[in-house]
UniProtKB/TrEMBL annotation:
Short name of any one Pfam family annotated for the protein: LRR_1
Spans annotated as Disordered: 182-230
InterPro entries for this protein: Leu-rich_rpt, Leu-rich_rpt_typical-subtyp, LRR-SigEffector_domain, LRR_dom_sf
Protein name: LRC59 protein
Biased composition regions of type Basic and acidic residues, renumbered to the chain: 182-205, 214-229
Cross-referenced SUPFAM superfamilies: L domain-like
Alphabetical keyword list: Leucine-rich repeat, Repeat
Gene behind the chain: Lrrc59
Amino acid sequence: MSKTNGKAVNLKDKLDGNELDLSLCNLTEVPVKELATLTKATVLDLSCNNLTILPSEFCGLTHLMKLDLSKNQLVQLPPELGRLVSLQHLDLYNNKLCSLPVSLAKLKNLKWLDLKDNPLEPALAKVAGDCLDEKQCKECAARVLQHMRTIQSDQDREKQRRLLAEREREKKREVEQRLREAREREARKREKAEEKERKRREYESQRAALIHQQESEEKTEREVQRESRAAFSPAAVGWFCSCPFIQHSTG
């Protein structure tokens, strides 16, 4: 059920064969959920309402072949419009559109397009032409599709250029990161070697000091022993015993 003029309306009652007429219903939004159940309705007339936007979900109605959105207040179309791959006829007459989504280029089956009475940007307006009759609307569809394909191609090339540039920047960042890591490893290796050399010098210094101390102690001990042996040698003892002073003292 949907509401038109504040009243609930069964969309099936509006369906006539494969045509669903929702024109002049004062709609401010599209009843997408209800429309999605009516896959038989390949022709949809939403003209003469108060629609300002189409929700992105609307582009899931891939069964639509003819769509009339004329005489609404549409200011833009959803970027996903290209999903309406079955669309052959699109009427956008008398809205407030300045541009069209680039995805329009994907509508390979589009044969008829009316863009009259829209404030189109100059480049698009020139491509669209006047759309005053059947022939011009068919030509409009062909020219606009080609225009959108050109824009899509340009955007794809720009996207590819940016992607390649980003990859180059990423490679440069990776190289810089590897160089930075290599420098850090080298610095750590150098610090480790310097620390090892410092410890080796400390060890050698301590070892030399210890050896010097041991040699000094051994020298002192040898001198003491030499002096001790000299004091108790036979000559020293004989002299001691023959000394008059010592004999007098002992007598």
